[in-house]
Every structure is written in C-alpha cells, then in structure tokens.
Amino acid sequence: MLAGLRLVAASPDSTVDYSSKNLSSVPRDLPKGVEFLDLSCNHIQQLHRDDFRNMSLLRSLNVSWNSLETIDPDTFLDAPLLEDLDLSHNRLRNLSGQQYLLNTGNLQQLNLTSNAFSTMTLGSAFSSLVKLKRLALEAKNISVGDFKNIAEVKLCTLTLCLGDELGYEARSLKGVNAQRLQMISSSELMDCGPYADALSLFAEVELMNLTGGYRELSKILSEKVKILTSHLYFTDISIEWKDLTHYVNVILGSSIAHLGISGVVMSHLPYIDSYVIQESKMKSFSARQAMVKSFFFSQEAVCNFFINMPVESLAITTTSIIHMTCPKSPSPVLKLDFSNCALSDSIFSRVKGQQTLECQNLGNVTQLILAGNNLKSLQLISVRTRYMKSLKYLQLGLNSLFYEGQEECVWPPNIITMNLSSNCLTDSVLQCLPKGIETLDLQNNQVSVVRASILKLENLRSLNLNDNRLRDLPVCDGFPILNELLLKSNSLHAPSVNNLKSCPKLRTLDVSHNPFTCTCPLRSFIHLGIKSDQSSHTSIGLWNWPIDYYCTYPENLRDTILKDTWIPEVTCNAGLLAATILCPTVALIVSVVVLCRRLDGLWYIRMIWQWTRAKHRARTQSDDLAGVEFHAFVSYSQHDADWVQNALLPNLQGPAGRLRICQHQKHFVPGKTIIENIMNCVEKSRRSIFVLSARFVKSDWCHYELYFANHQRLSRGSDGIVLVLLEPVPKYIIPSKYYQLKSMMDRHTYLEWPQERSKQRLFWANLRAALEADLPNAPITDLEE
C-alpha cells in the first residue's frame, strides 16, 4: 500500500534506476537532469550534502531498504523541487532530529515507516512541510503532543504502522489535521486505544492487515457515543463469516455512512442464512476482491446476507460469484454494482418446480451495473430487470451478450441510459432497446447498419457506435432529437453528408479513424469538417477534426489529413467537366472557322496537305526512271501560253526549281506527226502537267495529250498526271466526249492557281514538290524516233 505513495515517472529519459546495485553511497555520476531517482535495496548508510548537488530537477527520491543512519541537514539544499521522498526500512532513530526536512518545502509525500524510531515525537522541521499531503510514520510509542508540529499541515492521508508492542497514550492523535487515517496492523488488534481515537477524530479511517480483534472493534463501535468517522474501510484482512456478519450488523446500527472492504479472505462460511438488521443509517456497502477459504458452503446464504442489507448503494466487484439472489422483501437499494464478477443470465431469479420466478423486490433500484460478467442473452436480461420500475441507468458492457430477434424484449419503462459496449451484438439489437432511452452506448460491437424503420427512439440524444462495422452515416428519422453521434473506427469510406439533413438537432459528430477514400464522394464531408472549424452554434461540430481524419486511399494520398486534401470540383461534376471541355473546344472551332474564312485557312491547309503528300510520295515511291529525261511535260492551251512562259516555266526551271521541263515549242521534232511528238514527250517525262482552263477543255490536241498521259499512267503503274487549275472550270462546259477529264477532276487532287500574291509561293512549293526527282544526268537532245 505504501508503494502507492511514490510518483510515477512521466518520461523514461528523466528516470534513473539504481536499485539493488549493492551501492554503499550515492553515485557521483548521476545526470543533472534526473527527475526520478531510485536508490532502494542498497547498503547506503549516510546521505551527504554533496550527494544531490546540481540536481535541481529532482522530484522523486526512493532510498528505502538501505541502512541509513544519518542524513546531513543540507542534503537536499540543491533539490528544491523534491515532491516524493521514501526513507522507509532504514535505521533512522530520532523523528525530532530530521533537520534535512527544512530544505524540502515542496515535499508532498514522505514515508518514514520501518525505521528505529522509539517515539513518534515529530521535530520542528516537520512544520515547514506546508505542502505535504501524504505522511507515513511508525514508532514504538505514541504520546500526546507528538503531532503538534504538523497541526497546521493539512494532510490528505496520515498512515500509521502499528506494531505488536505499541505504547499508545489516549488522545495522542488529537490535533492531527488529516482527511483520512490509514492504520496498518502487524496482525491482530492488540491495543484498542488508537482505533477508538481514530473513529472519534477522523472522517475517513482505513484499517489494514487485520487478522483478528473484530469483537473488540465491535465493542468500540457499540460503546462509542460520538463517532466522527463516516467512511470506514478494511483492506487486506482475514475474517471468519460470523465475525464479518456480526461486525457488519454493528456498523449498520452505527452512524457510519459508508463501509468498504477490499481484499478480504473469508472462512467458515455458512450453510444457512445469516441475520441482517433491516434498519440502518448506513448509505453504502462495497466489497472488492473477496475470496473464500471454505469449499463447502451455501452461496445462496452468502448472497442473501448482502442483498438484504438496508443500504442505498450495494457493490460487490471483482469477486467470483456466479449468482445473486433476490431480496426477501422490498429493498431500499438504489444502486447495485456487481461489475467484474462471474454472474450468469439467471441473476436475481430463482427456480420453483418447473417455473422460473423473477425478482420483484428491487423496484427502487435506479442504477444497475453488471459490466464484465458472463451474461449472454440480452432478451433474458430484459426479463430479469422487467420489475425494476425505477431503473434509469443500466450498464451491461464487457459481457458476451447477443440478440437474435426471435423473442421480444420486455425492459422496464424508465431506462434512459444504457451501456451495451463490448458485446457480440449485431444489427438486430436495434429491435431490443427500451423505447424511452436517451443515451445509448453500443461501441465495440458488430453493428453494420442502422435502419430507421427499425430503430424508433424518439427520446434518444446520444448514440455511441464507435468500433463497429458501419459503412455510412445513419439516417435520423427514428431519433429526431439526436444531439450526439459517435462513429469512430468504423468502415466509413465516404460518409453521405446528405443523411445528416434528417438530424436537425445534431451538434456533435465523431467520424475519426475511419478508412476514408479521398475521391469525389468525400468532397461534401471534407466541406463539413472545414465548416465545423468555424465553431458555429448552429452547425455540426466534428470531434478530433482535423488531426484524426486522414486518407487511406488512393496510395499517393495515404495518411494525408482530409483538411489538406484537395479534390477539384471539376473532376467530380460531370456537367461542369463537360462544360469545361466543350466550351473551349467550341470556341476554338468557331475561331478556326472564322479565321479560315477570313484568311483562306482551308486553302492553306489543303496546299500544305498536298505538299506533305508530295514529299511523302517522293521519299517512299521508287519510280523506274530509265529513259526519263524530263521532270515534266507541260500541256496547255495556246491562249494560256503567256502564263506558262512568264510564270510557270521560270518558277520550275529557274534557280528556285531547277527542273527539266518538256515544251512542245522547244522539244517537238520537226517532220514527225503531232501525235508522235506528244507520245515521245509523255514517255520521256516523269510527270505530265495539264494547265486547265476554259480554253483547254475546248482544245482537241490538249485532250490527245491528256489521253496519252493517262495511258502512260496505266502502263507505268504510277500516277504521273498533275492538274493545275488556272481558272475555275465548271464541269458542265466540258464536252461529254471528254469524259476522262471529268473523271480525273473527280479523282485527282488538283492545284488551284491563286490570284493573291501572298499565296503563290505556297502554290509553287507544292508544284515543285510534286515534280522533284533525281533524274539520270543524260544530255537533253532533240527527240528522235
């Protein structure tokens, strides 16, 4: 128990443990930043002034279980922050000479038990401990005036270890200003004096390690006229059943309001019921970690004694009881606590013949705590409590409860708070709940969906569904005044914020630690979280936002806080996305069309396309150029001779083109027929250029040339005809007998002669690209047969 006086280290880096190191003195290499120092279980005999030099941060020091005999008065001069000092189990001899305490004004806990003090006389140095809260002492003799130097110190707990040969002077404890007196006995109660004074001087008294003397205590309580103690505790005691029941009955008849027993070992337990008085001023009784030595006894008789006690609060916890009986008469108990026992579904009931009788004598119970037992059927528990008409708070957590929905639950009508956490409950539990419930705790179960059509709880204000299997936010149609909804650690990927529109009263929402998928459906929830930062009185506040809300998918956003995640609206809104793409596209198309119409864009595009195709054909097609002397033969009407001589030939034969062009004026051989000359020119030329105009279509010789060029194209297997449209030629003016020209104009892409000078450079580039080829370097001679 005394070990509990020590402070617990807050940081491992500031803790030094030198316990059980066989030390004979305080080490000199202790770090300056140490806060918690353990030197227990060594052989240190003295503490010197320099032992704790420069340890200005030292807060807790344990030097227990050493051989300390002397402590220098200036030992703790350099440790002004010291709060916890344990000097128990040493050889200190004089309580009035502990001058080192003058330098421990910040001390809150001091343990001096198990030393060699012969008297309890506290020296003047104790009066300087104005912050002291817990003091543990032990001496062979206690006299009046021993505690006068701590009369002004307001202690929370004074612990006195009482030995077998204690010499105690009556009223020695008078003047001690402590809320609680803790008395540790070595065995049986030997001297009743300190116990009698304790009950008349202290509001809370705790008796520890008793193994006997209970009859003497009962006598003290019975004879004492004035008892100040309102809270009486027994810790780590051994007692026979008859002494326990007798002593409890005596306390029930006294003015003590609260009786607590912890760590009790009972023996000689009964086979029949024990007497318990029916009227008492005592408000509460609690028993914790009760154990039995008897193997054969009536557990029903033991339970009957406790359940029939006339108290308002009854608690039996952390005790292996498997059943609790029903009071024999209407019980005044308001609160029952049987947590962490081994109770089963048969609690409070009894079997008579073939019939199970339910308990009807606990109608005043307002709080029932059955957490941590072996309860299984939720429907049976509703039957066991159906006659507790005053029941408002029911704690059933940490059991193995389930509900399959086959039988109807019959809860008492006034339950407003129910805790069903850490059970095996599924969605069907929503059909087995009290209708007037206001606070419901279902955390750590297996609920996957909350159906509003099933859950009709019009008074529900708080719903805890943490650590379940929910995939979306519930709809609040079944609980219209819900104010608090807790859904932490479920399976919510993208909570549907629209469901919250059915929760007009909701002010607190916790959806932290869920596996959020940071995609488009989560945008509205992120907006809700950002809005909650504004702390509006009318909006929903998200608990633990934003630090406990982070992405789990996609991988590139894993562990990113939702608040820092940006999901563009344009990627989530199909209409907006379409508008974002289509509007610029339409605008671009319109702009291109307008520009093309105003700047002859289509003409340029067509010219560039033809030039590209010509270049591509020149690289990819390998013509048989054997016997070819000219790049092209020009066929035109005599009326277009000026354009051919002044425009066409200079741009093809000149420096810009350097092409070999066959002309009838220059290369027709005199003496040969025109037909023969045409045929020879076409055969000697890689391409044939036809300058189309209205006069061309009316020339028979031009059509002959066109006919032979087309025949040459078929015989070579390659397209060698290039049409140049010098002016628009409507097809209707072409005589029907010249159907080949019409066919070529439909099939061939022809070049149009532009009138604008700005376009003519591109025209010549296209034409040269169509004609260019590497010809044999044969000399050009007159054409012969």
TrEMBL record:
InterPro entries: Leu-rich_rpt (IPR001611), Leu-rich_rpt_typical-subtyp (IPR003591), TIR_dom (IPR000157), Toll-like_receptor (IPR017241)
Record carries keyword Transmembrane: yes
Segments forming domain TIR: 628-771
Localization: Membrane
Nucleus in keyword set: no
Organism: Solea senegalensis
Name of the protein: Toll-like receptor 1
Topology within the bilayer: Single-pass type I membrane protein
Family designation: Belongs to the Toll-like receptor family.
